[in-house]
Structure formats: structure tokens, C-alpha cells
Amino acid sequence: MKKTKDENTEEQILEAAKNIFQSKGMDGARMQEIADKAGINKAMLHYYYRSKQLLFEAVFNNAFLLLAPQLNTVLNDDSSIEEKIKNFTTNYISFILKHPYLPNFVIQELNRNPEFILKMKENKEFPNLEKFKKQVNEEIKKGIIKPIAAEQLFINIMALNIFPFVAKPLIKAFINADDETYLQLMENRKTEVSNFIINSIKH
Amino acid sequence: MKKTKDENTEEQILEAAKNIFQSKGMDGARMQEIADKAGINKAMLHYYYRSKQLLFEAVFNNAFLLLAPQLNTVLNDDSSIEEKIKNFTTNYISFILKHPYLPNFVIQELNRNPEFILKMKENKEFPNLEKFKKQVNEEIKKGIIKPIAAEQLFINIMALNIFPFVAKPLIKAFINADDETYLQLMENRKTEVSNFIINSIKH
DNA sequence: AATTTTGTTAACCAAATGGTTAAACCATAT
DNA sequence: ATATGGTTTAACCATTTGGTTAACAAAATT
């Protein structure tokens, strides 16, 4: 059971590394802890990934590539702004409830190492605002929504959706909520947030 | 010049520690680096603060105590909801532009160690939502603002104000902005954000 | 002026940490 | 069965890191 050529050792490592890196960050993570969680010898980490840095990058890229398509929903599909916001909000919040460490991990590590995002930008799937901008300006011209800079609207959408997860401990403390209450609050936000945004911009 | 009883050595350490901790976090910070930045011997850090943990807590408490009063503006003064939102938004964004590392530092370290906030909660000045809730519900009853849960409104205000700073590298990348453009965007948000919120809730 | 207290430094220490190595293991092709 | 080549392990290594110590210098106290 042990010495079989385990095709999935590499994946077990990645899964363990994901767990440790996402909850403790690059600096807080320990190679030994990752090995323990994966149930293998520490040398294997280096055998498959060479170094802590490279293992980390593998985890980070995976995380980022999971988030990017979510954003593209808001940017590149063909429905109206109102539809987009509704869809994105419910989808994104559901998505994050399944991957609670993701946004904080990505944001934290990008702040630690801002040049990192340059590599991401080269990716074909990297979110691009052009279409969204055009659409916002059109709907403004048509009188469907009130004037607003597309960039600011985009930031607002991101903020309202992502922040409550990034700042979870802070929010729990201010609201005086236990985990269940917090979760309920996030559930409610699936409609709350889109209503809030649409109320603000709809004519 | 060297062996004078420098009354401010302790503060030099705290200032250096603030810089290093806020940009690298607890795990990424090195005692030697803090000593170097303070221009003193590493042993002094321990002489004045005993351990890395205690030095970190001194920095963290200072940071938190700087942020709390900002929030109390929105919660405990006597102006209308609309006034409060306007004041808070301009004040808070100005404040953060002067202390750019603050929000991310606090959020990051609270996520790393959520029990930490329990100590904060004991503090008399810890933000309390009660008054704000009452006021929101009154203005709803009077028909000044549309129905909304006070907690959700509070989260929205926080999100719209804080998130753009926490996620700076992400936003710069999506918007394709250099530092100057980013700064301009944040300046604009001083009015943008309050308009956005008020548009959404005002009857 | 002598002595005690406080501040400061260089040198040191033990533990932790990322990484390496040499040997063992094992499935498979020969 | 045996050689082969990827896989795995235990032991090891060099460096980093938080923390300590002993000696010394400058004030403060007597």
C-alpha cells in the first residue's frame, strides 16, 4: 500500500500545500507541516516541486485561476448590467462559501509581493474591463442607469462581494455574531448586495 | 552620542517595528530587521519588549486603537444617517491615504489569529452598533431611508470604504492603473462612495 | 566620590527550518 | 532472475532565527 507508484502523490502534496498555505500564508507555512498533512516524507516535497517558493507558486496560480473566471462573469457575458450584477453576486457568494480562504489568501500574498500579479496579467483569461466599460457607458447613455464611472462601479461590486469574507473576524466582532449568524448574514447578502447596487444605479 | 540614556529608544523600536510588522506581517518580520531599522542592537528589542510576540502586540494594539475611533464616527455621533455616511467616507479615505498599510495589517493578523479580537472587545472604545441600529430603524420608520438591515448597511459602508485599500494590487491590475491613477481613483471615492450609498438607501 | 541602577553591546546558544544525500524500495521491462 | 529507473525514506547539513548572557558604560542615588 505504501511503495506503489502513486500517481497522485504529487496531487496529495498540492492539496496539503493548498490547505497550509491558504490558512497560514507563505511565511507562516512550514514544509514539515505540509509533508505531515500529506502523510509523506518532507524530501518528497522537494522531489516534486524543487523548493518552497515553487510549491507556493503552484498553489497560488491554482487559486488565482479559480477566481478569475468568476470575475469574467461580470465582465464578458452578454446580459444587461442589472442581470450581470444579480448573477455575479449570487454566484460569487456561493462560490466563496465553498472556498472561504481563497480571497484572503490571494489578496494577502499579492500585497506581500505585488510584482506577482504581472505574471498573472500575461494570462489570456486575466479579467479585462473593456467590454464592461463600454456596456456601462451605453446603458448610461440610454438612461437605463445613472451616470457612474465604470471603474468605480466595478470596484464597488468587488468590494461589496469580497470584503465581508476577507474581514470575517472583524465583522463577526462588530456585529456580535457567532459563526451561524455570520453565515446567515452572508446568505442574505446574495440578494441584499445586488439590490443595494441596483437601487443605487438604476434610473 | 551612543551611550546617552535615550528616552526615546523604546519609541524608536516601536516605530521601526510598526514599519516592519505592517508591511511583512508577524511571520514575515525579522527581529534583526527591526533592530537594524531602529539603528540599535537586537538585544534592546528584548530588553524593552521581552519577546517578538509582545512587541507585535504592542504594534497591533496601537494600530487597532487608531482605527476604532474612525468607526465610532459612523456609529456614535448625532447627525443623520446621510450626514454620517458623508462624513465617515471622506474622513476615512483621507485617514487611510495617510496610513496605507493599516487596514490590511489588521485584517491579515486577525485572520491569522481570530481569538485576538476578544482582547480588543474588552476595550471601552470598541465600536458598538446599538445606537446605529436604532437610528437606522428610526429613519426607516420615518420614511427617510428605504428598509435595510442595519448590519448589512454597516457591512456595506465598511466594504466600500476599506476594500479598495486592502485589495490595492488587485484593483491596480484590473483597472490597469499606475500609482497615480489609483490615487486619483481613491480621491474620487471620497464623494463617489457616499453618493453611491445614499442613492441606494434614500427614499 | 562611591555605589547602585539602567541602558547598551558583542558574542553566543539552542531550536527550527529549508534543503540535500545516499541508500533502500519496488514495479516493470529485459 | 536481474537490471533498470522512478519513487521514497531516514539521516544529515548549513543557515536563520528568536532569545540569552556577561561585560561594560552612563546616569542616578547615596
List the helices and strands and how they pair.
The structure is a homodimer of 203-residue chains.
Chain A: H1 9-28, H2 31-38, H3 42-49, H4 52-76, H5 81-98, H6 102-112, H7 116-122, H8 130-141, H9 150-166, H10 168-175, H11 179-201
Helix pairs in contact in A: 1-2, 1-4, 1-6, 2-3, 4-5, 4-6, 5-9, 5-11, 9-11
Chain A binds a DNA duplex (30 and 30 nucleotides) through residues 2-6, 9, 30-32, 40-47, 51-52.
Explain this structure to me?
By secondary structure, chain A is an all-alpha fold. Chain A folds into two domains: 1-50, Arc Repressor Mutant, subunit A (Orthogonal Bundle), CATH 1.10.10; 61-201, Tetracycline Repressor, domain 2 (Orthogonal Bundle), CATH 1.10.357. Chain A is 77% helix and 0% strand. Chain A has helices at residues 9-28, 31-38, 42-49, 52-76, 81-98, 102-112, 116-122, 130-141, 150-166, 168-175, 179-201. Chain A is globular and about 65 Å long. The N and C termini of chain A lie far apart (66 Å). Chains A and B meet through helix 1, helix 6, helix 7, helix 9 and helix 10 of A and helix 1, helix 6, helix 7, helix 9 and helix 10 of B. Chains A, B: This is TetR family transcriptional regulator. Chains A, B: Residues 30-49 bind DNA. Chains A, B: It holds the Pfam family TetR_N.
